[in-house]
UniProtKB/TrEMBL annotation, chains A, B:
Name of the molecule in the record: homoserine O-acetyltransferase
EC number: 2.3.1.31
Residue positions of the active site: 147, 303, 332
AB hydrolase-1 domain residues: 58-214
Coiled coil segments of this chain: none
A family per Pfam: Abhydrolase_1
Tagged with keyword RNA-binding: no
Length: 358, 358
């Protein structure tokens, strides 16, 4: 089946938008919560070359609402993740619109409003198969990710401790917090309360526009921080926006409105239930204690989802770890690297971690 | 006209719910933005006795979604605001449901969806008339308030500097921040997007229940702080709730769902446009520089609306002022005094301010 056939419905989820990428065939993939995705595809992109001894691989999953494309800015010859040195695998989440997802699966085959519950551990089981079966890799130099990418990083490090030499969970937690769940419920409800959503069975994803707008609005409140929006600071101008309203339209709505509502809901549900302690019968300390990776826990100061204190709490349970907070007015979205110094700070920490023996 | 006739529509806005209170007749009250409320009533409650020299009065306005009742917990014989010593006036905001409001004004008289734009300065002009015309008071020992009450406190201190001897703006700002505006837009949109709201012309306020539920949900995300909701902290249990879901239903929804949607929107609009710099052609430093009151600026640490840094920024422009941050997991809702030590800390600062010569 060609990519064009799989991604017919929404021009956002195409190679025209995201560049070339690959699909790994998972066959009929059984999910943690019981259902199976038939003929399941895991999308991914690689950069660099796997060396002979297969010991130069990095896995770099992405955040909520993202794809592999959004991580590419942290891969480059002048950066810590240098593709002349490393083989970088950027997997796409199940449900993100490039892998098997609600919008590219017909309703009668379990798509759209029928799409099954997917969990973070399903992503990591799928990625593990890609890494081992497709590439024959037994050890990873580094697993890193931001936000839901951090959830995936933790799941990798807890589930396959002997494989992960280094880990960098950035602005995310190993176990979702009740406050995150409240936030996720609010932005999911913003979409689901739009009558056009119709329990996930819309004929045109762009018809759910008011739901997606409310979703973007809630993200604008929580995604950065109060200080970013201070009228003296006017940080939005440095970011290239004439006003807060301009930023709402041309940053937040521009980001979300092209996406498929069910895809977003599938990812949000995964986020809402992310918890590595399920690997140890609910004992978080036991689960995090299994991590063998040299770990840099990298929260963003002023992050309204994942305050430094929540990340420090988890870091204290990881044997060989350091807390590396990064200051920025961009709050949770520091990772977007809109301010050059933020991107540089993140890259510096990654570089230091890669140079640390593990 | 009897209270019963004025407050027919919603049992929440009755003396059965709020106890006895008074109405001050403002006549036809012209608003800052141009329209007039005919036969306008300002509700208020007083506690204590005005002394002969009329120099023992305190004005204590309330927050968004509140009434005078919500401030009464800070007035008592064992507290700083002791009614055996002070005459305490607790005015109700225009639009709060006890004063003239959308829900108690028929549509053809400018009520419901036709209710005019009201501004913080309208509240303060109305309260000034109450204080001077009804009671003949020329000087106030203290003006204080929380959140929108802080906005009103600032407006009092800037507009009538010679009258206000002491001021305590608690967890609120003199000039609304763009981040607050984003938050206000999100929770107003939660109500307005409910089809039952019908541009403000519903026949039953309780029919707008899903809009009010979404509104409550957004407040649950921003009203406290992430740390409150930490799964190890389980602060909700100390607050008397079995779970976060229980707290959403029996704290947040219990608070908002009885209220009138248009009343909430009228108050939210006021909040969104609060800015004392309008008294000085947009120059905030000039406006705050006019304050003669001895001022304690009292932000709550972990407040997701009004971080200490925003409040400190304004405090630095007030001549005779001190910054008095109060730590609490309750974030913006520290003022609810659910944890006894929070209430005590607030009362201690108020007591110290009242004892300071001014």
């Amino acid at each position: 089946m060609s990519l064009e056939e799989r991604y017919l419905e929404n021009e956002y989820y195409t190679e025209a938008e995201h560049g070339e990428f690959d699909l790994f065939d998972l066959g009929d993939f059984e999910l943690a919560r019981g259902r199976t995705i038939r003929d399941c595809k895991l999308a991914y992109k690689t950069v660099g070359t796997l060396n002979q001894s297969k010991d130069n691989a990095i896995v770099f999953p992405h955040m909520y609402s993202g794809t592999h494309r959004d991580m590419e800015m942290y891969v480059g010859e002048d950066m810590a993740i240098d593709p002349t040195e490393y083989f970088v695998i950027m997997p796409d989440q199940l449900g993100n619109g490039l892998s098997s997802s609600p919008h590219n699966t017909p309703p009668h085959e379990g798509g759209m409003g029928n799409f099954p519950e997917v969990m973070i551990e399903d992503d990591i089981r799928a990625q593990h198969r890609l890494v081992t079966e497709e590439f024959g890799i037994e050890e990873l130099e580094l697993v890193l990710g931001w936000s839901m990418g951090a959830q995936q990083t933790y799941e990798w490090a807890v589930r396959f401790p002997e494989m992960v030499k280094r880990a960098a969970p950035i602005a995310g937690t190993a176990k979702v917090t009740p406050h995150d769940q409240l936030f996720i419920d609010a932005h999911m409800e913003a979409i689901r309360s739009d009558p056009a959503w119709n329990d996930g069975f819309y004929t045109d994803p762009h018809a759910v526009v008011t739901g997606l707008q409310r979703h973007a609005q809630i993200w604008s409140v929580m995604g950065l921080c109060t200080q970013f929006y201070h009228y003296d600071e006017r940080a939005w101008e440095r970011a290239g926006f004439a006003s807060v309203e301009d930023m709402l339209a041309n940053f937040w709505e521009d980001w979300f409105l092209r996406m498929d509502p069910n895809n977003l809901l599938t990812m949000a549900h995964k986020w809402r239930h992310g918890d590595v302690s399920r690997n140890a019968d609910g004992d978080l300390e036991e689960a995090l204690g299994r991590i063998e990776a040299k770990t840099f826990v990298m929260p963003f100061e002023e992050d309204m989802f994942f305050p430094v204190s929540d990340c420090a709490h988890e870091e204290s349970m990881i044997p060989d770890s350091e807390l590396r907070p990064i200051p920025s007015l961009w709050g949770h979205f520091t990772m977007f690297g809109v301010f050059e110094e933020d991107k540089q700070a993140i890259d510096d920490h990654i570089g230091e971690l890669l140079e640390t023996p593990a």
